[in-house]
């Protein structure tokens, strides 16, 4: 396991009960005491099976690989076993963590329509395979909490009118005015279902196969708390709350980010801090930037609810997510590197608040989903967004749409591999694709937070149009399954983009993991540069060490007009720590898409 800087404090039973009671009152009001008794019974029953000793939080060594369980296929071998071998032989020590996307039995959406939450899909392997991976790296597991498959036992209970599933879903009169509800898709919000009681209409945010669960019923919440603790027992170190934005529904509101949703996230955080301190909670909220930031709960930093007889009024630690996805970064980097102008990126990075200890960003450029564009609302003018969307079409991508309150459609995400998103600039495709792509990854790796690298970025995967044709789903363009023999050949062959991306990213990740200026809580400052350059300072640390990460984000040579370079000697950690000095023929000039990581000890 990777070493980390400091332990995260455990939550005492007394403090937990005060905090949990307050959260339950926010959600369920007068039913608080009854639900609290049931919660404590559940927790005490589970506690003996958990490691309750505090574990360290994070350090510069933390970097996470994102993958499906069956991204690599090797004959009849269980894919989870194949992935374990790949980590051991190809990536030994490179990643501290692994996010295996939903590995449960599922019916659609490549895993996010879960049938059985406590089972491993037998096509992938079994719990022993999961535990083996968890012993090698910090394991991130999805808690798919907003919705469930129509093939689940809960839904079968609902159809027959039996418990417990009978009251697990949200029935709605189809005549109800739901125009205020924020829609992430253009599918109908209500799905007609034939039951023994006749046709009912159920809430389904994402698809007719993903039926939303009713958290106004506390039985549903307690069910998921049990599932959460089961994942921790199996070795999960990081819990990802999928689609948490939409959890609580209230007619007459947008049904996103409601106070009850935040209260439930804070309750889950308190449970982890009490039952398995050091287990991290990350929220997946693909929404505009400021809305995403709300899941840190920073605006609520105030004295903690205290048990009776305690008068401590010291300010509390952040009590919501440990990490949030930096959803603004993927589309903003596409804009930056295809336009050759870092102005918007620099302005956005300057706007990021200083986070207190115990909070950090999860930085990424690509994931199993598309490149969401909602996070750019308020940051990028509409005409600039249109230029980017048209360019992604030219590079072989698609655009998925969502339905707005007025019935119109608008872009929701770009479906394209990140490597092909870097195929060229606004002038079209060019010869700089590999260099441009690696610049995007190097830039992401240097930003404050913990980096996540999608497997298909590691392998510079091309758009999988065949996968789209087979599945009928646009997101399949970025979800290729690699035959192991083919992948091995591309990695081991000379002069393939896969080999260049894999070896270059592996080297940079290993350098990053040994540079203390990349600790998630090391300071970050955006430097003043010309539009063709983006540069940040990380640090200074307590010992004075600082790092400058400098990038030419354009396809032309750029002047190194950065005042900070004039003070003292700098050493290039990307060049084995050698003293940095510009080439005599290129003094004060940075070549297209070149990256510098310069340290001053």
Beta-strand share of residues: 15-25%
Number of helices: 17
Terminus-to-terminus distance = 27 Å
* Assembly classification: single chain
Mean pLDDT: 93
Biggest sheet strand order reads: 1-3-4-9-10-11-12-18
> What is the helix fraction of residues, given as a range?
25-40%
Please provide the count of β strands.
27
Keywords: Glycosyltransferase, Transferase
InterPro entries: GGa_phosphorylase, GH, GH13_cat_dom, Glyco_hydro_b, O16G_dom_2, Sucrose_GGa_phosphorylase-rel
Protein name: Sugar phosphorylase
Organism: Salinicola lusitanus
Observed structural traits:
17 helices, eight-stranded parallel β-barrel, six-stranded antiparallel beta sheet, disordered N terminus, alpha/beta, globular, 601 residues, 27 strands
